[in-house]
Amino acid sequence: MRIINETKWKTEHLREFVRRIVPNELDPEKRKGVVIRFVNARNRGVSGWAYRNSRRCRIIVPKPGSKIEHLKEALAKVIAHELAHLQGRPGGRSSELNMRGSDRYGYRGDYVTYYAWAKELPLEPQEEQHKAKPATDDKYAVEIARMEKLMSGWERRKKRAETAIKKYARKIKYRQGRLAACRSTKAE
């Protein structure tokens, strides 16, 4: 199982949530090749998506500092819900395996008490790593190298264009000669 973290939360904390939930939701043979991608939410709330019987899911998590009540419990519920989809459980209203109203998978149920264990798990933001700005001469050297590469590409295009122009000039000259020959034979 692989976890890809594109959020501001610590990866080891998100991994701990997944580690606690996976044994209840996925069969051991289904765990191989599963990719769980955590991404930042554009708005508030925790959500996610996964296709049934697939191996990929996306968990959408709010950025640190957003004031969401029961964030850890909601995160645990969404992870369990999406892993249940990976296992093959449907989410429709009419199915007998309905997940929408249940305590375990839905918001309508009492998921806060079901996932009360999530309160004890840590969920902290990552320390921001500021990249050191490159020195000015290094920056200019990189720009010069990039521009030289672009210029060599344009020079190749120019050379190919000149070759194509010569080729079509020869073809036009040949056709003009053939046309003149045809006209001279018709005139006679």
Structural class: alpha/beta
| Global geometry | elongated
* Tally of helical segments: 4
CATH topology of the largest domain: Collagenase (Catalytic Domain)
State the major sheet: 4 strands, mixed
Q: Quick one: how many beta strands?
A: 4
Share in β-strands? 5-15%
Report, as a whole number of angstroms, the end-to-end distance.
Answer: 86 Å
User: Strand-and-helix sequence, N→C?
Assistant: EHEEEHHH
Please estimate the helix content: 40-55%
| Uncertain regions spanning at least 5 consecutive residues | none
Please give the structural blueprint.
Blueprint: E1 2-5, H1 11-25, E2 35-40, E3 47-50, E4 56-61, H2 71-87, H3 111-114, H4 136-187
Parallel strand pairs: 1-2, 2-4
Antiparallel strand pairs: 3-4
Helix pairs in contact: 1-2
